[in-house]
């Protein structure tokens, strides 16, 4: 670009010829074009600096210090910390007398200070809970051998089928699986806890090897969860990063309110999503990730929480784009508000449904106007993409009972995300297979309110004794969706 050396302290001299005028005008146009490019780049960088968990898919743990301070800046309520006036008391219920291990009696003195005798009329129970001294249990199985006195044939005793062939019994293998899969301890921490709590010393290799048969025993229950969740009427899907060493894989989740099924895959594309969904024909709730878009549009619900974060990003832009984003954001928040009221009314309310239909028309009209107004720039492209996805945001209107958000799947993935931050990831194909299996069992048991340890112990005992696990979880049958009144 031709540089113009102008002295701004006095008016510049007028060009002497027409050619000089054209040259100055062309230089000014070029300077204006470069200025607009720089301005657009500055706005883009400012938008990236403003990104956080409230307007993008970035997790809260990666928010900047300023974003965290803004998020924590809650308006004080003026109330003291702790339980408030009128809060119901929560007290530990007394254990029944037949379940008490030991009873100690404390009587008052038999004689009062006034000289009279004291008659006992009752007692006040005070129960103290404590942990017993822990010691592991060792059973020695002696296998004898002998020889025939006539022919000299050697004979040897045989261990019963229910006796483990290794040194770890079903309770210990189940406990190691619980510590790693439920409480996300590393193998070194499990090794240390075994010695600290139980006085048992096992090598890292032995602890790792104990998960090999457990993985095989978990297979039938894992397949049961997968088959059941694919038969559900409503399911939520999501995915997050899974690391094997330095390689990036993906952990996929297909969940309901009662079940959670996990799958590891090298891809985040449609092939992996198809493997996760299988023959699922119900209503699918997801974020806007395109890998799920092979699922039929009329039975696919997009998450409104993700939509609001996308609109927050547009609303944070300057000028007309920010104004359009604010209007779209208000319409989206009103939609979520009335959608919740409609769900809380159990869907017979025509008033809330009519308001939602009006909001649907308003939202489409605002999107169309914004897409036309902004043309081919970033905001215009975002609005046109939302118009393409528009039917998938309103499936809940045609199928009452469908949630408007994908929180069920995101809550299922959160324990794994925490586990991923506190471990050395997966180091082998065996680890890639074990993690989704143990996570599926743990999350499903939590949702069914079933003890994870007792379930694992039953599975391990069956696997060791019979070689085949016949245990199955009490998974619920699919329930019909509520129907809106005509």
The whole-number mean of residue pLDDT values reads 85
Biggest sheet overview: 5 strands, mixed
Shape, please? extended
State the oligomer.
single chain
Rg from C-alpha positions? 33 Å
Number of strands: 7
Order of helices and strands: HHEEHHHHEEEHEEHHHHHHHH
Q: Pairing-aware structural class of the strands and helices?
A: alpha/beta
* Helix residue percentage: 40-55%
- Poorly predicted runs are none
By DSSP (H or I, 4+ residues per run), the number of helices equals 15
Strand % is 5-15%
Strand order of the largest sheet: 5-4-3-6-7
Distance N to C terminus? 68 Å
Question: Can you give a write-up of this model?
Answer:
With 486 residues, the protein is α/β, with parallel strands linked by helices. 46% of the residues lie in helices and 8% in strands. The chain contains 15 helices and seven strands. The strands form two sheets. The chain has a five-stranded mixed beta sheet with strand order 5-4-3-6-7, sandwiched between helices. A two-stranded antiparallel ribbon has the order 1-2. Strand 4 and strand 5 form a beta hairpin. It comes from Methylomarinovum caldicuralii.
């Amino acid at each position: 670009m031709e540089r113009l050396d102008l002295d701004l302290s006095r008016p510049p001299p007028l060009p002497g010829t027409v050619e000089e005028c054209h040259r100055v005008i062309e230089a000014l146009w070029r300077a204006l074009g470069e200025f607009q490019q720089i301005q657009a780049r500055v706005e883009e960088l400012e938008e990236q600096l403003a990104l956080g968990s409230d307007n993008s898919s970035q997790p809260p743990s990666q928010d900047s210090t300023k974003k965290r301070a803004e998020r924590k800046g809650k308006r004080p309520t003026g109330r003291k910390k702790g339980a408030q006036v009128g809060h119901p008391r929560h007290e530990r219920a007394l254990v029944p007398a037949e379940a008490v291990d030991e009873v100690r009696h404390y009587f008052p003195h038999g004689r009062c200070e006034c000289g009279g005798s004291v008659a006992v009329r009752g007692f006040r129970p005070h129960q103290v809970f404590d942990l017993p001294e822990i010691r592991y249990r060792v059973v020695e199985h002696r296998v004898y051998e002998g020889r025939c006195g006539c022919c000299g044939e050697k004979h040897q005793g045989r261990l019963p089928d229910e006796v483990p062939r290794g040194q770890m019994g079903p309770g210990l293998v189940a406990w190691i699986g619980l510590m790693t899969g439920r409480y996300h301890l590393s193998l070194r921490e499990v090794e240390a806890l075994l010695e600290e709590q139980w006085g048992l010393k096992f090598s890292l290799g032995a602890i790792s090897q104990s998960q090999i048969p457990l993985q095989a025993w978990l297979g039938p229950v894992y397949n049961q969860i997968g088959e059941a969740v694919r038969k559900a009427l409503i399911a939520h899907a999501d995915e997050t990063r899974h690391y094997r060493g330095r390689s990036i894989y993906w952990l996929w989740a297909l969940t309901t309110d009662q079940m959670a099924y996990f799958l590891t895959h090298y891809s985040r594309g449609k092939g992996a999503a198809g493997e996760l969904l299988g023959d699922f024909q119900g209503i699918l709730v997801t974020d806007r990730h395109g890998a799920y878009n092979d699922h039929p549009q009329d039975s696919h619900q997009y998450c409104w929480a993700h939509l609001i974060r996308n609109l927050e990003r547009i609303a944070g832009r300057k000028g007309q784009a920010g104004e359009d984003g604010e209007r779209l954001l208000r319409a989206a928040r009103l939609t979520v508000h009335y959608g919740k009221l409609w769900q809380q009314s159990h869907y017979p309310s025509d008033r809330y449904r009519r308001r939602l239909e009006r909001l649907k028309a308003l939202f489409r009209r605002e999107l169309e106007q914004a897409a036309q107004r902004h043309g081919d720039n970033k905001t215009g492209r975002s609005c046109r993409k939302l118009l393409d996805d528009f039917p998938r945001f309103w499936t809940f209107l045609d199928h009452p009972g469908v949630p408007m958000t994908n929180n069920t799947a995101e809550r299922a993935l959160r324990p794994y995300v925490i586990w991923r931050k506190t471990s050395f990831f997966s180091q082998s194909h065996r680890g890639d297979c074990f993690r989704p299996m143990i996570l599926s069992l743990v999350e499903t048991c939590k949702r069914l309110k079933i003890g994870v340890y007792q379930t694992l112990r039953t599975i391990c005992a069956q696997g060791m004794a019979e070689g085949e696990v016949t245990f199955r979880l009490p998974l619920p049958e699919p329930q019909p969706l509520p129907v809106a009144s005509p």
